[in-house]
Amino acid sequence: MQESHHTTIKPRSSLFELNLRELWEYRDLVNMYVKRDIVTFYKQTIMGPLWFVIQPVLTTVMFIFVFGNLAGLSTDGLPQALFYLAGIVLWNYFSDCLTRNSKVFIENQGVFGKVYFPRLVVPISVVISNLVRFLIQFALFLAVFFYYLAVGSQVHPNLYALLLPLHVILIAGLSLGFGIIFSSLTTKYRDLTFLLQFGVQLWMYITPVIYPLKSIPPDKQWILLLNPMTSIIETFKFGFLGAGVFNWFHLLYSFTFMIFLLFLGVVVFNRVEKGFMDTV
Questions:
Q1: Would 258 be classed as within a structural domain?
Q2: What pLDDT digit, counting tens, does each position of 166-187 carry?
Q3: Residue 48: what pLDDT?
Q4: Which end of the chain is more exposed for a tag (fewer CB within 10 A), N or C?
Q5: Full-prediction pTM beyond 0.90?
Q6: In this structure, is residue 57 part of a structural domain?
Q7: Residue 234: which of 204, 212, 249 has the closest Cα?
Q8: Element counts in the chain: helices (H) and strands (E)
Q9: Quick one: three-class SS letters along 150-193?
């Protein structure tokens, strides 16, 4: 006797509802979206995944020329290439996830209007697919890192490098939270998309990517520490390079900020999801 399966679709009872069980049931769809994103990026390209390496290399070279040589910014006594690349790898993962997730409703309005599935599947798949790009760029960082270790540069890795998985989780959570909030707002206010692109570029300059936090006067550092990405990048550099500012309280602030942001993002996302087809 053939079994029949029925799925009951009903409106959410609360804006705070996050049906993790339903998301788990659609894990195959997440996997499909991840594969689609990766294949789409490679399609009709000559260099393929090498673009993931070329972009941070060219950015690092530009930073060395502009900020290292012309502006003469400090790199905490570290090799310029290694210092800049450490920040670029983490920042690229954050900015890529944030930018793509900010367009979830607009880019998927055709699918969302015809087929039912948990809408959070799409932004979650973006975070996972961009993780592939991050791992490739992180491998590039490790290659440069071990080179400078071999030639005896002043690089002092320590056990705090093992916090890398925590850094990835924090960045993924922050980019997901910010991304779904902006995606929800852009269904009604399209010009926010252009504001976000400009804002992400400016955001990098208030994050210690091209300069160390120690180069900022102590009485002004708290301003940068309000940025949850600051402690993540500083801790990453401290663990792998032995330079930077590490403080458990700063990391706790970033973690708390991420939890609150995800909570707020889910509320806004659930609210907009109910009637976004009327405004998108």
A1: yes
A2: 999 999 999 999 998 888 888 7
A3: 62
A4: N
A5: no
A6: yes
A7: 212
A8: 12, 0
A9: HCCCCCCCCHHHHHHHHHHHHHHHHHHHHHHHHHHHHCCCCCHH
